[in-house]
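Slide 14.
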Amino acid sequence: MIASNYAFSKIIEALAISGVVAFAATPLSIRLAHIIGVIDKPKDGRRMHKAPTPRFGGMAIFLGSMAALIIPAGMNDKIKIAMLGGILMYCLGVADDILNIKPITKFIGQVMTASIVYALGVRITFISNYFGSKVVDANANLILSEGTAYLITVLWIVGITNAVNLMDGLDGLAAGSVAIMSLSLAYVAYIHGVRIGSMPVCIALVAVAGGCLGFLPYNFSPAKTFMGDGGALYLGYMIAILSVISPLKQATVVGALVPMLTLAVPIFDTLLAMLRRTLKHESIMNADKGHLHHHLMAAGFGQRRSVLIMYGIVGIMGVASVLISRDLYKDAFFLGMIALLYLCIIVVPRRPKKNIKNIITQDVDEIEKETFVEYLNYERSRRKKEREEKREEIEKHDSGKTRKKN
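Slide 15: predicted structure.
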């Protein structure tokens, strides 16, 4: 009980430190962005903002979470390795913000960072043994070979890092979503912490969430600043690496589903983007306007409501991951189906195309045009109705005057 209370106090301490530091550092990051010229200008149709906006806010998230991670209760060897990788990934993102490096160069840097943390001992070494392999450990988990473990670890870290980066398309979307995902994983680590020793991971996740929450008041629509690639790559990396470090996968044979469910929305969006670009015979690294938040915007929800809708779906999957960790599989399944239904509603247009390929590769600009045409038609009918009502009132008024004269 005493140990639990001590851990809870450290969690609150980490949340407070990261939140306060990030909140205080964000105005400084805005000033620094103007000094070094890191300003995001709306130079193409993908961008949702209309005015030049500083994009160096990732510095505040980085400083806030790193300040909280220095708490001794969260500083085991693997957390230190995660922090080292976080510094490298943040520096890579900052280099992209300032120098606008090529996508392939950024990808190589991500692989190198993931390789370094793998070499230092943070890795996925086993998965749940669904196929009855003989190479298992005491918990009946399938032991991976060195090469396979390396590929899966690097793929997970780089994949989640870029998935979160792709979410950074609307004001407050990435910061708020990562806060929800981090708190969901932190709660899972907390409820199993005493039994499997995941309290350091819990504290680290709370520190990441606190950094996002401290930054969010400046980033929510209308945003005063963006996190930039420095913040997006750092957040994606941290949530990926901390889910690898967590010993939760030892608690249940399907425990590996917990981080996958928690991160289901960015994973779904990334896989859909890769499929969409492949079907259109484009490079998977090409940017487009086919992401989930673009569909919501095209449907006319606006930035704030679109972001809140995404928060809700991310939250549903976070709760599902908590239920999975407590072996409540049926409850988690139904929640997952609800979230999947909402995702399908977002992706499938109101006027579905003839086949699934056309739905996946649809041009969001067409949806925007359809929505705009519908709005114009509505305005025309509304104004016509107003004119008719006004004409009827005038006619009634004139007829009343005629009766009085007679």
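Speaker note: The longest strand covers residues 126-128.
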